[in-house]
Amino acid sequence: MDELDGRLVQALRRDGRASVSELAADLGVTRATVKARMDRLRQAGEIAGFTVQTRADVAAHAVRGLMMLGIEGRGTERVMRALAGMVEVQAVHSTNGTWDLIVELGTETLEDFDACLFAIRRLDGVTRSETNLLLSTRRAGR
């Protein structure tokens, strides 16, 4: 990927629905160049796909945080299944290092957040946890 490809990908991250004409004007190149670059990037696997963001994806919960979990023995799958059933859980990441899982949480109030933390800590197999509140988020390419 060269510099123009990088600028094209950044433009698509900002607005994946931008027309080829809009992209060409933004990048200062022809429509044919943009079309050829996009085709080449897709064929090479650099652009793996396009997606849509819904209002729920961008509407942040009032209280958000990351909870790192230590899990006893082979209970990770069981804990992950339990987490998947909780509406406050936005994502669950397996990881290496000190923690076994990192859980993204979102609630409307601190009381709800606290109740969620309490429920997770009570799950069979969770031996320890550490939680950090997210204060602000800056998305890549914006």
Number of extended strands: 4
Q: Strands of the biggest beta sheet: in what spatial order?
A: 2-3-1-4
N-to-C CA distance: 20 Å
Low confidence ranges: none
Tell me, briefly, the overall form.
Answer: elongated
| Discrete helix count | 6
Summarize the structure in words.
The structure is a single chain. With 142 residues, the protein is of the alpha+beta class. Helix content is 41%, strand content 21%. The chain has 6 helices and 4 strands, in the order ααααβαββαβ. The protein has helices at residues 3-14, 20-27, 31-43, 55-58, 76-84, 110-121, and strands spanning 63-71, 89-94, 101-107, 126-133. A 4-stranded antiparallel sheet has the order 2-3-1-4, with helices on one face. Strand 2 and strand 3 form a beta hairpin. The radius of gyration is 20 Å and the shape is elongated. The model has no long low-confidence stretch (mean pLDDT 90).
Give the secondary structure arrangement, pairings included.
Layout: H1 3-14, H2 20-27, H3 31-43, H4 55-58, E1 63-71, H5 76-84, E2 89-94, E3 101-107, H6 110-121, E4 126-133
Antiparallel strand pairs: 1-3, 1-4, 2-3
In summary, what is this structure?
This protein has 142 residues and is of the alpha+beta class.
Main features:
elongated; single chain; alpha+beta; four-stranded antiparallel beta sheet; 142 residues
